[in-house]
Amino acid sequence: MDKQRDFVLRTIEERGIKFIRLWFTDVVGTLKSVAIAPAEVEGAFNEGLGFDGSAIEGLTRSFEADVLAHPDPTTFQILPWRGEVDPTARMFCDITTPDGQPAVADPRNVLKRTLAKAADRGFTFYTHPEVEFYLLKSSKYGKNGPTPVDSAGYFDNVPGGTAHDFRRRSVRMLEDLGISVEFSHHEAGPGQNEIDLRYADALTTADNIMTFRTVVKEVAIEQGVYATFMPKPMSEHPGSGMHTHMSLFEGDANAFYEPGAKYQLSKIGRQFIAGLLKHAPEITAVTNQFVNSYKRLWGGDEAPSFVCWGHNNRSALVRVPLYKPNKGQSARVEYRAIDSAANPYLAYSLMLAAGLKGIDEGYELPPEAEDNVWSLSDTERRALGYTQLPASLDHAIQFMEESELVAETLGEQVFNYVLLNKRQEWRDYRSQVTPFELEKNLEML
């Protein structure tokens, strides 16, 4: 760590960095930033930077307001969009109390805690997200809703299209920040894009997702368009998910891989999936944290609505992707409910905790779903034992309230704050009179 600190201090001097942004997130997953001058960095490393945590959503209660932000030197990167005028760098921070204890409501600490539990069992948790988002002509919208930048579709090549230049610039910027991109393409909706980040340990991935959202927003502004990670910005077009591929490694060996087993999936892999399935309804208020998230989950277009798993079955909640011959390291499972607006630190904590619970308790994996689950009738789904994911944020809150797993993983303060925040959002939503109601009822009733 000392070597890393020395490297940061030397780079700041050599590259003429003028500002260093210290980044962290609130409980909802909004990125927070405070800029310090180069002269302050060494002090921030040694003592942290003090601020009033009660001003940040869910970070502390007012009677314990003082917290310290400690920059993590391993996350130091120069921000490419700042250019050569006043070069600026960033570091992610861990938040502590004045006596040096990790702040219980710091989302990054919640994930670190859960990863430590996995490490105690000999596991490292790797994740690989496929992040979808929409490019719009502007954040303003009229009677017909937002206006996408194009009318292209899945994998379309659009000569001279905004999305090409946008993705090229974004990918280059991400690579400059040390974030490897696996591939990028146009998604199914008009103006919808997907960029897949290469797999990394879950803490690095969560940091990368926060950086990714910032890069995408910055490049959009630069190109005169607007990027949104809203789960379902247009009712008639697909929502934006963040399908995440997951694997557990024991040292260099993929714990999900067993040659000769069905789908080359080990007992640990099967128990991990069983844990995800059993606890999916409880964790959905975090993996899908907004009222709008449920418009995506229940809006069709390949979003999962029912709790089941399948091999290469895109209608299932958990998918076991096609096995690559002789590539045991690539064995993984894909969780398809999570959307691009989730707080990645909390969502990955709960997905990991659910999988570990399946392993610890030896959960049995139910039979796989071989049919298109959407095309089955409710009676057929019931007969096959496929329960549904929560149908609304209110429904998800009810599951979460009863969950020991979620309470234990998030810790009391974060658990209570998420419930408080989400109940308020549901109340605000429920009290509205919508254009739909006026259109249907005003003249007729």
TrEMBL record:
Gene3D superfamilies: Glutamine synthetase, N-terminal domain, Glutamine synthetase/guanido kinase, catalytic domain. InterPro entries: Gln_synt_N (IPR008147), Gln_synt_N_sf (IPR036651), Gln_synth/guanido_kin_cat_dom (IPR014746), Gln_synth_cat_dom (IPR008146), Gln_synth_gly_rich_site (IPR027303). This is Glutamine synthetase. PROSITE patterns: GLNA_ATP, GS_BETA_GRASP, GS_CATALYTIC. Its cofactor is Mg(2+). Residues 15-100 form the GS beta-grasp domain. Pfam families: Gln-synt_C, Gln-synt_N. SUPFAM superfamilies: Glutamine synthetase, N-terminal domain, Glutamine synthetase/guanido kinase. PANTHER family: GAMMA-GLUTAMYLPOLYAMINE SYNTHETASE GLNA2 (PTHR43785:SF11), GAMMA-GLUTAMYLPUTRESCINE SYNTHETASE (PTHR43785). GO terms for molecular function: ATP binding; glutamine synthetase activity; metal ion binding. It comes from Cryobacterium gelidum. GO terms for biological process: glutamine biosynthetic process. Belongs to the glutamine synthetase family. The keyword Transport does not apply. Residues 107-445 form the GS catalytic domain. Keywords: ATP-binding, Ligase, Magnesium, Metal-binding, Nucleotide-binding.
